[in-house]
Write a structure and sequence with these properties.
single chain, alpha/beta, Beta Polymerase, domain 2, Beta Polymerase, domain 3, 4 domains, seven-stranded parallel sheet, 25 helices, DNA-binding
Length: about 575
DNA sequence: GCCGTTTTCGGCCCGACTGTTTTCAGTCG
């Protein structure tokens, strides 16, 4: 699938046009098209072949032609021309906070700066301050920003939600203890539960701004303060993450929360709708344009209400159709954590888990689940103590015994089998057929060519005894990209065979991701299962990350397999269908 | 460059902060 590639090309065009100082609306058009395509829950190539390219909003004649050229020839002449005009190395300058396209272009044309090294050298030699409208302060800020950037390079650019969320909870707990902090709510991409977070936005209501700012200065994990205004304070906390605090008045709390939750695209769309209704939205409230009268602002819900929209859950606020749905009153009722009746992917110390089967089962029971799917590794994964057919048989007997101990709770015997390099499963059919269900996943050979990996996965999907594919794309956030695979083909065969795809809730996996999961359900009608892939009893709590992905994928309770009682799950699994 | 329940042309979200400035452009979110 080339969605991401196309989006990156359009983004690069936009950036190069920005540096050139092109019309800002033209630039915005490229950025908008890039964003649309990156988040598109459909294969752009498929749409192109079906002649539906121009049905995507934001793609008109000019951008459409460039996409067409890329998909047919693999290059975009327009972009290559632009690259000749502006050396791509300049793009590196834009990564430095405080350097935008205008300044980057001036530094390049007036001082010949085209990379970080020459930038740092020029700043140290005091050459930048000699340019008109630039001074020593700019020079100093550039040097500091370069230093900060280099430090940040050590870590990754965007941090996983699984790292950011606990950090935010720590900060919120710390500040909550002060009586003058009356409200403290994380906003931004954290609140939208995006899989990675650029920086953290936290909103505070208080009757004493000075004290809040004072307290922020003594935050234990504080590294340094970037900016401290009367309404905004930006800091860096360990381990190198920016946190923006916004101190707001109670009467504006709802508006501020809405504004800072974003996304940017979502907010722009809302403000456009507001204008058509004679209203203006900003972070302080909703105002009538005619007399500037403030109509609301204290509660977030009021903003959507006054625009004639259903309340839109933060996870959906990406301008991916949620506003149109809300307008028609057709937003989905999103799945919630309480809807999950059982964890669909759990390991024990029979393979590489840290806790015993008994401990894992007992914890699942105590969490209030109705069932748990025990899915240890199979024999081919030697490093993980994968189970042989004999061990599997023993484990089944133990599970049968345990099942007699519990009422209103079922232990399901499964396996996370390996898809071997030829696409076969590392257990014979007579073993596979005895499980309650079988999960299969790729654990090796990620570097095989795209055709080969696609073949392997499809072969596993076609296996009548494989019910669920675990972590279907194999990506590890910030560590390993998804393996090369013909994803639409995977979806097609999953649909054809009734195979379920997993949303793996491990915070570094979140695989399928939100966009893929939405595509699987919305365009192909495939069921998703959510499993924590737990290897110890504490990891059951990670289910919430799977729920976040599902919600961002627009999934309702009924779209997710493990919201159904086991007897109903059976009706949806292909192994039981084929026996009927 | 895209788009249209007032538009096929004339619009295109909103505000804070910073640095260098006597009024504002650039950057950021």
């Amino acid at each position: 699938m080339k969605n991401r590639e196309v989006a990156q090309i359009l983004d690069e065009i936009a950036t190069l046009l920005e540096i050139k100082g092109e019309n800002k609306y033209k630039i915005a058009a490229y950025q908008e098209a890039a964003r649309r395509i990156e988040n598109l829950p459909e294969d752009i190539e498929k749409l192109f072949k079906e002649g539906k390219l121009y049905q995507i909003k934001g793609i008109g004649e000019s951008i459409g032609q460039k996409i067409k050229e890329y998909l047919t020839t693999g290059k975009v002449t327009y972009l290559e021309e632009l690259r000749k005009e502006i050396p791509p190395e300049i793009l590196e300058l834009l990564k430095i906070p405080g350097i935008g396209p205008k300044l980057a272009y001036r530094l390049y044309t007036e001082l010949g700066i085209k990379d970080l090294e020459s930038l740092e050298k020029a700043a140290k030699e005091g050459k930048i301050r000699l340019l008109p409208r630039l001074g020593p302060k700019v020079e100093q800020n550039i040097l500091e920003a370069i230093k900060e950037y280099k430090e940040k390079q050590q870590v990754s650019e965007r941090i996983p939600l699984g790292v950011a969320l606990p950090l935010v909870e720590e900060i919120v707990n710390y500040l909550s203890q002060y009586p003058f902090v009356t409200d403290i709510v994380p906003a931004g991409s954290i609140r939208r539960r995006k899989e990675t977070i650029g920086d953290i936005d936290i909103l505070i209501t208080t009757n004493d701004m000075d004290k809040v700012n004072q307290v922020l200065k003594s935050l234990p994990i504080l590294r340094n303060i970037l900016a401290a205004g009367t309404t905004k304070t930006s800091i860096i906390v360990e381990p190198g993450i920016q946190v923006d605090f916004r101190v707001v008045d109670k009467s504006s709390f709802g508006s501020a929360l809405q504004y800072f939750t974003g996304s940017k695209a979502h907010n722009i769309k809302l403000r456009e709708i507001a204008i058509k209704k004679g209203l203006k939205i900003n972070e302080y409230g909703v105002f009538r344009i005619s007399d500037n009268k403030k109509l609301c602002g204290e509660k977030e819900e009021e903003i959507y209400e006054i625009l004639g929209l259903q309340f839109i859950p933060p996870e959906l606020r990406e301008d991916q159709g949620e506003i149109e749905s809300a307008m028609e009153g057709k937003l989905p009722v999103l799945i919630e954590e309480k809807d999950i009746l059982g964890d669909m992917h759990v390991h024990t110390d029979w393979s590489d888990g840290a806790n015993t089967l008994e401990e894992m089962v007992e914890m699942a029971y105590r969490l209030g689940y109705k069932y748990v799917v025990i899915s240890d590794h199979s024999q081919a994964l030697g490093v993980a103590g994968g189970l042989t057919p004999e061990q599997i048989e023993k484990q089944r007997q133990r599970i049968n015994e345990l099942n007699r101990k519990y009422r209103d709770f079922k232990i399901l015997h499964s396996i996370e089998a390996n898809i071997l390099s030829d696409g076969s499963i590392d257990l014979p059919e007579e073993v596979l057929k005895n499980f309650d269900l079988v999960i299969a996943g790729l654990h090796s050979g990620f570097k095989q060519p795209k055709e080969k990996i696609t073949e392997r996965l499809i072969s596993a999907i076609k296996n009548p005894w494989v019910d669920i594919i675990s972590h279907p794309t194999g990506r590890l956030i910030n560590k390993r990209p998804a393996y090369e695979v013909d994803f639409p083909a995977i979806l097609y065969w999953a649909k054809e065979t009734g195979t379920v795809l997993e949303i793996n809730a491990q915070p570094d996996r979140l695989d399928l991701c939100d966009i893929d999961a939405r595509m699987a359900r919305e365009k192909y009608g495939i069921y998703l299962s959510i499993g924590t892939d737990s290897h110890d009893i504490r990891s059951y709590s990670l289910i919430k990350y799977g729920i976040y992905v599902a919600r961002r994928a627009w999934l309702r309770k009924e779209d997710v397999l493990n919201t159904y009682p086991w007897e109903e799950v059976k009706l949806k699994l292909k192994r039981y269908k084929e026996k009927r």
